[in-house]
Amino acid sequence: MRFWDSSALVPLLLAEPASPRMLEFYRDDPALLVWWGTEVELTSALAWLERESLLEPEAMGQALTRLGVLKAAWHEVLPTEEVRETARRFLRVHPLRAMDALQLAAAFVASRGRPSYLGFVCLDARLSQAAQREGFPVLGLG
């Protein structure tokens, strides 16, 4: 099982340059571990593309259907006090936005403090760097 950041899941919903690589990671290990807020983040990304006329309504519907299929099978890290405290610490030591700190904190809590044992799939450079510094093996960029 690997932890998937929202940035790495978008290419599973839409055809993007990173889609073949993300599909390969997914096929290799289809057990997705995500943060509790991932569905909202993904819907936000899709809605932004639709509002900017970069995603047609039909493609939006297809992407939301794919999201529903993924969500039905993924495992979520719930918003606990431990996740919140860890995110607050990460905000002090890494140049992260709040949602990215929550993603990283969820992965850290899910790893039970042993990040080297949990792959972190991410396409966001800043979050990938923070995850690497915390000890996660990061897949996605490069």
Provide structural commentary.
There is one protein chain. With 142 residues, this protein is α/β, with parallel strands linked by helices. It is built from seven helices and five strands. Strands 3-2-1-4-5 form a five-stranded parallel sheet, with helices on both faces. Helix 7 (125-134) links the parallel strand 4 (119-122) and strand 5 (138-140). Helix 1 (6-13) crosses helix 2 (19-28). The longest helix has 17 residues, at 57-73. It is globular, with a radius of gyration of 15 Å. The model has no long low-confidence stretch (mean pLDDT 96).
Topology (SSEs and partners):
Elements: E1 2-4, H1 6-13, H2 19-28, E2 32-35, H3 38-51, H4 57-73, E3 75-77, H5 81-93, H6 98-110, E4 119-122, H7 125-134, E5 138-140
Helix pairs in contact: 1-2, 1-3, 3-4, 5-6, 6-7
Indicate the structural class: alpha/beta
How much of the residues is beta strand, in percent?
A: 5-15%
What kind of sheet is the major sheet?
A: 5 strands, parallel
The DSSP helix count reads 7
Termini separation comes to 21 Å
Tell me, rounded to a whole number, the average pLDDT: 96
How many beta-strand runs? Answer: 5
Strands side by side in the biggest sheet: 3-2-1-4-5
Order of helices and strands: EHHEHHEHHEHE
Shape summary: globular
